């Protein structure tokens, strides 16, 4: 089986080549490093401030610009 002649053999050869390429990429990837807990807490605090700001903005619009 030096050269594939039919479609199934071509697909099988292509699949094997893709598998080898994926395995090589997986070996080269660096391990996942989780963000520090303090940074995640800070992000949640900023998200909360943003949501409160948006809620107050819509409240201001609903009141017609008057408090």
Overall geometry comes to: elongated
Report the β-strand fraction as a percent range: under 5%
Largest sheet, if any? none
List the secondary-structure elements in sequence, H or E: HH
Low confidence ranges: none
How many strands in all?
A: 0
Structural notes for this entry:
There is one protein chain. With 67 residues, this protein is an all-alpha fold. The protein is 72% helix and 0% strand. The termini are far apart. The mean pLDDT is 86.
List the helices and strands and how they pair.
Blueprint: H1 7-28, H2 37-62
What is the structure about, briefly put?
By secondary structure, this protein is mostly helical. 72% of the residues lie in helices and 0% in strands.
Key structural traits:
single chain, about 70 residues, mainly alpha
């Amino acid at each position: 089986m030096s050269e594939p002649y039919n479609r199934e053999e071509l697909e099988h050869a292509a699949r094997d080549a893709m598998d080898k390429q994926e395995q090589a990429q997986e070996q080269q990837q660096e391990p996942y490093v989780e963000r520090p807990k303090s940074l995640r807490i800070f992000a949640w605090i900023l998200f909360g401030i943003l949501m409160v700001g948006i809620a107050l903005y819509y409240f201001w619009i609903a009141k017609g610009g008057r408090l």
